[in-house]
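Example 3.2
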Amino acid sequence: MSLENKYFAELARRLRAAGITAGHPEKNRLTVLLNNQPVLSVSAGSDVFLLPAGSNQPEAGELYHKVAQTADEVYAYDDHLDAFYDYEGYGQHRIQQENGRFSAYGYVSYFGVMALEELMSEDPAEAYQAQQGLQWGRIE
């Protein structure tokens, strides 16, 4: 079963559970019915379109919002794609890009002027002052 068909099958299942009637997917579109008339069309990319038959029906506007929300929820996360996500590879890439580090508190990335090692030292303000050659004292 193609990803589009899986998307439409899950969308139709959720719409049925909400009491909304959907037709069968045709040409990468799923038709949504109101009073046995097609009033909405949903694309494989979760775009929802109001069809001419629904343009004069106030109920079609309410239905549009329910269907659009459900379509976005189904499109946003597809369980079947879990095996294709490389979370570790993505994390390693981000670490390299951001020059981040893991600490006891989690992942840290910093885009400031100090080196991350200095920032995570005991007293980062003191290290920064030393780096800048700043000294505290009285003005006379």
